[in-house]
Amino acid sequence: MTTLLLIEQVLNGLQSGIMLFLMAAGLTLIFGVMGLINLAHGSLYMVGAFAAAAVAGATGSFTLALMASLAAAAAAGAIVEVTVIRRLYDRDHLDQVLATFALILIFSEGTRWLFGSFPLYLDVPAAFAGPVMLPGGIQYPAYRLLIIAVGLAVAVGLFLLIARTRIGIQIRAGESDREMIAALGVDISRLYTIVFALGAALAGLAGALVGAIQSVQVGMGEPVLILAFVVIVIGGIGSIKGALVGAILVGLTDTLGGVLLPLAFGLFLDPSTASAIGSALASMAIYILMAIVLIYRPTGLYGAPV
Amino acid sequence: MTRETILNTLIFLALPAVAVAALVMDEPFTITLATRAAILALAAVGLNLALGLGGLVSLGHAVFFGLGGYAMGILASHGQSYVPLFDGWILIEGTKSMPIIWLVAVLSSAVVALIIGLLSLRTSGVYFIMITLAFGQMFYYFSISWPAYGGEDGLSIYVRNSFPGPNTLDPIQFFGLVFAVLAGVLWMMSRIARSPFGLALNAARQNATRVETVGLVPMRLRLVAFVISGAVTGLAGALFADLNRFVSPTMFSWQMSGEFIIFIVLGGIGRLFGPVAGACLFVVLEHSLSGISDFWLIYVGAILLLVVLFARGGLIGSLAGREVADD
After folding, report:
1. What is the pLDDT along chain A (306 residues), one digit of tens a residue?
2. Domain assignment present for B233
3. Is B314 part of any domain?
4. Chain A residues in contact with B300 (beta carbon < 8 A)
């Protein structure tokens, strides 16, 4: 295996990790601040992708499509928070799981009803359609580099938002003591709606960005949702830093496992058996990673010990 | 008799009543629906031990359902092709006999439940939900990418497996067999709930610290509950595969796990017959709504949302009053 191919796969892993981070950041923020487990986060990802595909189809502009995905997902998130999620904060996790599972059914079938069962396609913007030459002679798709850059920019923005702004201070205060900040005069239910809409917007953005390399279809959100769960279990629930580290670990393990494991088995098995065993094991690799992390740190890498 | 006991008896008798009525009116499809409801109820009854009594919200019980299904699929496919399953230091052949398949399904589910339980019971709350979900996905993707037994396409078995005595090819006799299994497991569950183990498990859900101070180990209680629960769901998986004569990775999917929880909550959590009522209600909804609209799941979602938000206690809770017998 050549170094060039390896570097390309590392970049692919990084790209999928960064997209996972956008999902996982919202999930972990919502859990950290409101104590809510939100299975419908994948539906918001799907809403973002569909909004982007619809707007790109109508206007042809990718920038507008990205803005539409942010707006649609944030709006859907805010509506869902006000109508349903708000009633779930003081319920147990089982009720939260079920109600958000019900939301998935409603979102998925609603989208199928609006857009049909056939996948939509979102075109990569023309300026980023070709490959770029990286130092060392690596050809890599410009769009995937753009995704990495956008994701990192969002990550930095999120860290600054949480660490430096007034709303960030309120979010952090809400994580540690919600009664106290309500007593200090912060409108806690407005804060919760903002956090939920922010998480939803991040998921929607991820959906739109990934939608241009994969197809946009009903049910696209759930596999990503489950990967994002693995990410925040590894990183520690409630920790944004954990979400970033976990997302990149999961992205790299998933991508590199799919390439390296079949090759590794190929060293001592015949090619067809090696690729069968290798790809089967690769599909399990991230869950094995999660199990290992849990054995040593039951609350994740950056989670507070209980 | 309390209202709940009367209601339980009615629910219990409803299934065979529907099946017999369908037999009289010569509608074999309705018998199949009743069988399906009974099998799904069995799977949820298994989960209810962990979820209702033990308070363990497992979003990965489809693992055991799928394992049971594949136990049937793998053994029966070797049984019908006469190719031995393993031919090395020991000869293992496939089989078409249900009792052996059930035993393999129960044992393999129990062993896997022990391993998953040992890992995931180290955590609790949301972590437990997410980890069981992740283990479910692990088996799902493994079953898709492992090509030997059909991979993504699944595995068809041409003739239903046999059971000594009844003719399983006849829908009503197969229903009778399934119903007998369900009745036996329900009896076992009612015994477990009243046994010292069941009481301790219930106590561990309500207050783990107190249970620990009297010298019991909550983790061990939960692990045993998780293993029994997984084994019962595994048995249901073997029956489900036999009903459809088909196994596919869908049995491992997390929507399946979600549906089991839905059965329990629709029927009423922590109640012996809750999962049975919920599974019957779900099959009825599925059958009647899918005739009305292609997007029938949207109605299921809406109903579920309303039940969770406003009708806590589910069907049995709403009809029989709020008090749970064993709480």
Report:
1. 577 788 888 999 999 999 999 999 999 989 888 888 899 999 999 999 999 999 998 988 889 999 999 999 999 999 999 999 999 988 888 889 999 999 999 999 999 999 988 888 888 887 788 888 777 777 888 898 999 999 999 999 998 998 889 988 888 888 888 788 888 888 888 889 999 999 999 999 999 999 988 889 998 988 899 899 899 989 988 888 899 999 999 999 999 988 888 888 888 878 777 777 887 788 888 888 888 888 788 888 887 765
2. yes
3. yes
4. 102, 105
The structure tokens 């394992």 sit at B67
When CB atoms are compared, the residue of A99, A109, A290 closest to B297 is: A109
Q: Is B309–A295 a contact, with Cβ atoms under 8 angstroms apart? A: no
Chain B nearest-CA distance from A116, in A, is 11
Tell me which residue of A110, A7, A179 sits closest to B294, measured CA to CA.
A110
Task: Record the tokens describing residue B247, joined without a space.
Answer: 């196994």
Interface contact flag, A298 B127, Cβ < 8 Å: yes
Inter-chain CB proximity A98 and B265 less than 8 Å: yes
Q: What is the pLDDT of residues B45-86, one digit of tens each?
A: 999 999 989 999 999 999 999 999 999 999 998 888 777 777
User: What is the extent of the structural domain holding B263?
Assistant: 3-320
Q: Which residues contact A194 (CB under 8 A, 6 or more apart)?
A: A167
Distance between A118 CA and the closest CA of chain B, angstroms: 15
Residue A80 token pair: 């869902």
Q: Which value does ipTM take for this structure? A: 0.84
Q: Which residue of B has its CA nearest to A28?
A: B126
Domain membership of residue B325 (yes or no) is: no
Task: Note whether residue B327 is domain-resident.
Answer: no
Does the distance separating the beta carbons of B134 and A287 come in below 8 Å? Answer: yes
Q: Give the CA angle between residues A224, A58, A51 to the nearest 5°.
A: 25
| Upper half-sphere CA count for residue A169 (Cβ side, 13 Å) | 6
pLDDT, average across residues B295-301:
87
Nearest CA-CA distance, residue B197 and chain A, Å: 24
In chain B, the number of structural domains is: 1
Q: Report how far residue B201's alpha carbon sits from residue B192's, in angstroms, rounded to the nearest whole number.
A: 10
What is the Cα–Cα distance from A96 to A80, expressed in whole angstroms?
13
Interface test with B, best of A30, A88, A94 (most B CBs within 10 A): A94
> Å from B202 to nearest chain A CA?
17
Q: Which amino acid is at A173?
A: A
Identify all chain B residues contacting A300, using CB atoms and an 8 Å cutoff.
Answer: 127
Domain harbouring B241, CATH code: 1.10.3470
Encoded tokens for A145? 């580099």
Cross-strand partners of B244: none
